[in-house]
Specification:
Elements (H helix, E strand, L loop, with lengths): L1 E7 L2 E12 L11 H5 L16 E10 L4 E4 L21 H7 L9 E3 L12 E3 L4 E3 L5 E5 H7 L7 H8 L1 H5 L3 E4 L4 E3 L2 E5 L8 E7 L2 E5 L8 H4 L11 H15 L4 E4 L8 E7 L2 E5 L2
Parallel strand pairs: 4-5, 5-8, 8-9, 13-14
Antiparallel strand pairs: 1-2, 2-3, 3-4, 6-7, 10-11, 11-12, 12-13, 14-15, 15-16
Length: 285
């Protein structure tokens, strides 16, 4: 599904939705029980159901600058064997949705993964009937060097399978570039280190003509973590570091005009961070 579109100066950002659903995120944020969620009034109706179930999404974000077409995170992908039943052997219209939005796969020149988890690298590759091949054959794939080196020597919850079908084929094709956590992609797009969820996690800052936006990646998964930054995400590699990153980023973003675009936020996917007593809230207008 082609989703929201935002303009940041001369940059266009387009959301391509693979999955959007209510429920299921309680396994990602175990502390977000229904009764606790119901106490966060500003989450309703967009980010939680009336009975306290969290709403979430898996999507890609296309950043079109004057000189580049960059896809940030490539979701789960089709035809891939995954332990999560609702993610197993998906058959979605993702590539057609990209084309419908004006971004056929061959037009993408850069693939940027905020980290290398299962739901951020899936469409890096596609099945050609015999093997996994790069989906975006004209693109340079940017993988965090710290992140890549870490997962080449560690396995956690099937990560080695993800590397095998969604990362290694890119390396074998010679399309990868290993980058630092503060890499500058182009004048309008740069990375910000946001470690904790994974060792090499980074977020994406877009700046153009005095305007700015931040694509979060997974330093948080749901807006409820603005109200409760102490609530970790179950897959967080370093829980204390993840908490420290959230608080640091919230302090930097609050009361600014930087549009915060959540990598797993349900529609509406973006808003402005506001202070809310001793915590924060997302203002989606």
């Amino acid at each position: 599904m082609v989703g929201e579109v935002w303009r940041i100066g001369a940059v266009k950002i387009t959301r391509i939705v693979e999955i959007e659903a209510t429920g299921g995120m309680s396994r990602i944020i175990p502390d977000a029980t229904r009764d606790k969620v119901q106490d966060i009034g500003w989450l309703f109706p967009h980010f939680a159901s009336a009975d306290g179930r969290l709403r979430g999404a898996i999507h890609s974000l296309i950043i079109e600058t004057p000189d580049h077409k960059i896809i940030v995170d490539t979701c789960i992908g089709n035809d891939k064997e995954r332990a999560v039943p609702v993610w197993n052997n998906l058959q979605t219209a993702y590539l057609q949705d990209l084309a419908d939005a004006g971004y056929p796969a061959d037009s993408i020149d850069t693939v940027l993964c905020t980290h290398l988890h299962i739901d951020h690298v899936g469409w890096n590759t596609k099945w050609d009937g015999a093997k996994w091949v790069p989906t975006f054959k004209n693109a340079e794939y940017l993988f965090g060097e710290v992140e890549y080196n870490h997962w080449m020597t560690h396995d956690r919850e099937g990560q080695s399978q993800v590397m095998t079908d969604s990362v290694t084929p890119i390396v074998e094709a010679g399309l990868q570039k290993l980058i630092s956590q503060d890499h500058v992609i182009c004048p309008e797009v740069r990375l910000i280190p946001t470690p904790g969820h994974t060792p090499g996690h980074h977020s994406v800052m877009i700046e153009s003509e005095g305007q700015s936006a931040l694509i979060t990646g997974d330093f948080l998964h749901h807006p409820c973590q603005f109200a409760h930054p102490e609530w970790p995400s179950a897959p967080d590699w370093d829980v204390p570091q993840g908490y420290a990153t959230r608080v640091d980023m919230y302090k930097r973003l609050a009361e600014t005009l930087t549009l915060v675009i959540g990598t797993h936020f349900h529609t509406p996917t973006a808003g402005y961070l506001k202070t809310d007593g001793k915590a924060w809230r997302l203002d989606v207008g």
